[in-house]
């Protein structure tokens, strides 16, 4: 790591410590910006990530998408370009050198706006690619990240400057090595754009029966082409994707509402409580009642991100 990049990371780390002094996920005054602070290795956290850009100022994190594993630290950034059921775990953190992270959520419309307002070359529509990737953080990108974070100390400037700095961050990402892949989610008619629409449909209506033929029609693809493109983007089949979303939502409900497991099973779309319990235990390592009891003993009524 060069001295200038090291200095930038030190400033970003100091800003995150200042605005997120306690452990956990902190929602900031800048819409869609979150800061994260952990002083020790965490348990695996299950979340459906919205499209987001993340960079780390300290520590290391592992990310799992289906059976795939990515690791990133202070020299890297991570992008999830679509809604994805992801498992994350902080694997390197200590009180002296905590895990400190910047997370910025964005939308397809924001990507399209940057493409339309700049002289970036319009990329050709390509076949669908994985919607999760890790790149190397460059100095100019980190500079924009720091300037956005500094605005938390200047709340009166946030309404005017935050949108500009967010555009700059997205502009830098679109110029980077994964820019074409990121742009695809905003290019109407591209395979990634069409799969993104299906993913949004599944995540909005995860409790409803999944009809692959209808999803393929929504994507304007044959069933075989739809299956191939969906798996290329998400690393899983549509049914596996829906199952992960259902189980993650069930866990959230059980933890926040103290509801009966059988009732929650039906709420998230299962027709069999026993099947729900089996699949829940397979994903989280214990049946619903035992899992929630363990979580509440560790974290009270909140599951830390």
UniProtKB/TrEMBL annotation:
Alphabetical list of Gene3D superfamilies matching this protein: Homeodomain-like
InterPro entries per UniProt: Homeodomain-like_sf, HTH_AraC, Tscrpt_reg_HTH_AraC_N
Residue intervals of the HTH araC/xylS-type domain: 196-294
Any Pfam family hit: AraC_N
Keyword vocabulary terms for this entry: Transcription, Transcription regulation
PROSITE patterns: HTH_ARAC_FAMILY_2
Keyword Calcium carried by entry: no
Keyword Flavoprotein: no
UniProt-recorded name of the protein: AraC family transcriptional regulator N-terminal domain-containing protein
């Amino acid at each position: 790591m060069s001295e200038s990049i090291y200095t930038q990371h030190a400033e970003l780390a100091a800003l995150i410590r200042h605005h997120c002094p306690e452990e956990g996920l902190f929602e900031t005054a800048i819409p869609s910006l979150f800061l994260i602070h952990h002083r020790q290795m965490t348990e695996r956290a299950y979340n459906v990530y919205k499209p987001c850009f993340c960079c780390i100022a300290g520590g290391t994190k592992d990310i799992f998408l289906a059976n795939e594993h990515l690791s990133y630290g202070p020299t890297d950034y991570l992008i999830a370009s679509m809604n994805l059921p992801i498992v994350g775990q902080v694997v390197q953190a200590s009180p002296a050198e905590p895990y400190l992270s910047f997370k910025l959520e964005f939308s397809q419309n924001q990507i399209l706006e940057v493409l339309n307002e700049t002289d970036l070359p319009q990329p050709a529509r390509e076949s669908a690619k994985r919607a999760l990737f890790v790149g190397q953080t460059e100095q100019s990108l980190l500079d924009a990240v720091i300037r956005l974070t500094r605005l938390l100390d200047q709340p009166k400037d946030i309404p005017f400057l935050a949108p500009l700095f967010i555009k700059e961050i997205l502009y830098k990402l679109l110029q980077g090595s994964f820019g074409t892949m990121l742009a695809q989610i905003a290019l109407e008619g591209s395979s990634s754009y069409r799969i993104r629409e299906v993913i949004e449909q599944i995540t909005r209506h995860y409790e409803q029966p999944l009809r692959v033929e209808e999803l393929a029609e929504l994507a304007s693809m044959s069933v075989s082409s739809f299956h191939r493109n969906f798996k290329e983007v998400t690393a899983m089949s549509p049914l596996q994707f829906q199952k992960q979303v259902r189980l993650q939502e069930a866990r959230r409900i059980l933890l926040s509402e103290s509801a009966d497991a059988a009732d929650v099973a039906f709420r998230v779309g299962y027709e069999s409580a026993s099947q729900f319990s089996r699949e829940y235990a397979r994903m989280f390592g214990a049946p619903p009642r035992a899992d929630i009891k363990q979580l509440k003993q560790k974290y009270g009524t909140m599951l830390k991100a």
